[in-house]
Specification:
Its main location: cytoplasm. The chain has 611 residues and is an alpha+beta fold. The chain has 16 helices and 31 strands. The protein binds guanosine-5'-triphosphate, oxaloacetate ion and manganese (II) ion (MN).
Length: 611
């Protein structure tokens, strides 16, 4: 302890992990906080921190009878979503970041960041949050330590991950490697300077050093920019770890489906941000006899099991879900979980009785609200009451339908993988891939119209491979090769079937071609029946789509012709699509796996044969 005595800020450090102590000291020297606080993760600590956040005006305490132990936060209007333009993968070589990422040389970026972080925590507390993504008792637990000057981040990380003393003790006892994840709001306080409710900096930098496995995030307090265990670690850094260690880190939900015959199936699904993962994960089936339970709603780690099966786990402990559109009608399971409290809402509207509201929560629109920017709001207002990317942050354990397998470090064997996006046209409701590699092709060419989950224009069509475009921590072509190489180690008979889905196709009248939400269980049923060799399909050049009569429409006001329309493969639309896919693949240059180019050639040939 002799060394520690020279570090007054670290005197009471609850660890002897030399690497961790050295890093905490280095960061404290750089950022100059008023004090250092080691987060223990306890209930008592959470009460204290949230009390302080209420006093500071960052959190608004909600009506205890409506949402127990819950709070609302309202961000700076310029800090409402992930900032992809300011997100960087700083690998040693530019080539290793690939064409899908922003890149800067690590030394240059470090110099820039050191300048930004210098003194950035003045007047604030520096919180040290030990955390683990996935199970603490996993064979190879994935540890991280987030240093942040935001107590809102501490309270949110407590919901989203396992944090605190039990994690730190294991890091110390096993002298474990941890991902150093440094976060600052970039809003130091001069002596006597009053704070604002949502401190942040107009200059935002979300930076990853993949070889070092470290994260530096500056200037934002929001979601995926600031809760560094989530997108930054569990996807971007983890995808690099996964490449090196032979597994996959994916932007996927996991659900468990039980058939009327009581057989269990596990399904994962990759959809881009705000394209329906949380809703599908918490699905309330509208067909008799089929049951859904949840394992995860946003991130899935997959590896090949001992028998060559593909196994999946969810490394997160909470939901950070899109609020608008989440309602008693569309997603009652999410609403029940939220209603249990212990939640933090960001950028939703407040009701006059101290509850929260957002567009789509209830059919009836309240007569008066306070909108997310603090303005008085009535149904006549021309702006939405809640920000389109407003979020609820809720412990996953509050989901009544949480599958017990969520708690198993071994995870579950997948039977099906869905890839999906938000496409008004072209992409059928559901298409079964012709083969595993054809399914990887579908994933690699996945496309979607952009949403409010990231800063920038909404509704622009872009390719989003495996829904990982903003999250692949290395070269995108290498990432696709890795998918092929990992799965080549599986038992081919045990590999899941792959399906492409699109809940967002429109009819000629502009309506959704498919009711979606709970009715998506009908699509899952067809997928499972295909796995069991029981359901009819029609072969198209892009894959197999349900025959009109093959989708269970019991209780729906839809006809077989309606289904045929929803799964139509339109030659004209696909001619345009093929040109767009060619353009997309050209961007990969040499790094595109040959097997996928062959898939594209096959699709072109099948299309041409149809003309
Ligand atoms: N029409 C239609 N809309 C849907 C469906 N599923 C989800 N949505 C809407 O899509 C939006 C986003 O849904 P989420 O389930 O929160 O999306 P997500 O993929 O979990 O989003 P992230 O948390 O950003 O990754 C919400 O407004 C939903 O109401 C569906 O089946 N049909
Ligand atoms: O990361 C966030 O801020 C929210 C999220 O889940 C996503 O955008 O996919
Ligand atoms: Mn997400």
């Amino acid at each position: 302890m002799g060394d520690l005595a020279r570090l007054p800020l670290l005197e009471k450090a609850p660890t002897t992990h030399a690497g961790l102590l050295a890093w905490v000291e280095e960061v404290a020297e750089l950022t100059q906080p008023d004090r250092i606080y080691w987060v223990d993760g306890s209930e008592e600590e959470n009460t204290r921190l949230t009390d302080e956040l209420v006093a500071a005006g960052t959190l608004t305490r909600l009506n205890e009878n409506l949402f127990p132990k819950s709070f609302a936060a309202f961000s700076d209007p310029a800090d409402v979503a992930r900032v992809e333009e300011q997100t960087f993968i700083c690998s040693e070589n530019k080539r290793d970041a690939g064409f899908t990422n922003n890149w800067m040389a690590p030394a240059e970026m470090k110099e820039k960041l050191r300048g930004l972080f210098a003194g950035s925590m003045r007047g604030r507390t520096m919180y040290v949050i030990p955390f683990v993504m996935g199970h603490l008792d996993a064979e190879d637990p994935k540890f991280g330590v987030e240093i942040t000057d935001s107590a809102y981040v501490v309270a949110s990380m407590r919901i989203m991950a396992t944090i605190g003393t039990e994690v730190l003790d294991k890091i110390t006892a096993t002298n474990a490697f941890f991902v150093p994840a440094l976060h600052s709001l970039g809003a130091p306080l001069a002596p006597g300077q009053a704070d604002v409710a949502w401190p942040c900096n107009p200059d935002k930098w979300i930076v990853h050093f993949p070889e070092e496995r470290s994260i530096w995030s500056f200037g934002s307090g929001y979601g995926g920019n600031a809760l560094l265990g989530k997108k930054c670690y569990a996807l971007r850094i983890a995808s690099v770890m996964a490449r090196d260690e032979g597994w996959l880190a994916e932007h996927m939900l996991i659900l468990k489906l039980t058939s009327p015959e009581k057989k269990n199936y596990y399904v994962s699904a990759a959809f881009p941000s705000a394209c329906g993962k949380t809703n599908l994960a918490l699905l309330d089936p509208t067909i008799e006899g089929w049951e859904v339970e949840t394992l995860g709603d946003d991130i899935t780690w997959m590896r090949i099991g001992k028998e060559g099966e593909l196994r999946a786990t969810n490394p997160e402990a909470g939901l950070f879900g899109v609020a608008p559109g989440t309602g008693w009608g569309t997603n009652p399971n999410a609403m029940r979980a939220i209603a249990k409290g212990h939640s933090i809402f960001t950028n939703v509207a407040l009701t006059d009785d101290g509850g929260v509201w957002w567009e789509g929560m209830t059919d009836e629109v309240p007569a008066h609200l306070t909108d997310w920017q603090g303005n008085s709001w009535t149904p006549d207002s021309d702006k939405p009451a809640a920000h389109p990317n407003s979020r609820f942050c809720t412990p996953i354990s509050q989901i009544d339908m949480l599958a017990e397998e969520y708690y198993s470090p071994d995870g579950v064997e997948l039977s099906a993988i869905l890839f999906g996006g938000r496409r008004k046209t072209t992409v059928p409701l559901v298409t079964e891939a012709r083969s595993w590699t054809n399914g990887i092709f579908m994933g690699s060419t996945l496309s979607s119209e952009t949403t409010a989950a990231a800063a920038g224009q909404v509704g622009v069509l872009r390719r989003d491979p495996m829904a990982m475009l903003p999250f692949i921590g290395y070269d995108a072509g290498d990432y696709l090769k890795h998918w092929i190489s990992v799965s080549s180690k599986a038992n081919p008979a045990r590999l899941p079937k792959i399906f492409l889905v699109n809940w967002f196709r429109r009819t000629a009248d502009g309506d959704f071609a498919w009711p979606g939400f709970g009715d998506n269980a009908r699509v899952l049923k067809w997928a499972i029946e295909r796995i069991e060799g029981k359901a009819d399909a029609v072969e198209t050049p892009i894959g197999f789509v349900p025959a009109g009569h093959a989708l269970d429409l019991t209780g729906l006001d839809l006809t077989h012709a309606h289904v045929e329309d929803a799964v139509r493969v339109d030659p004209q639309e696909w001619a345009t699509e093929l040109a767009s896919i060619e353009e997309w693949y050209a961007k990969f240059g040499d790094s595109l796996p040959e097997a996928l180019r062959t898939e594209l050639e096959g699709l072109k040939a099948r299309m041409a044969a149809q003309q």
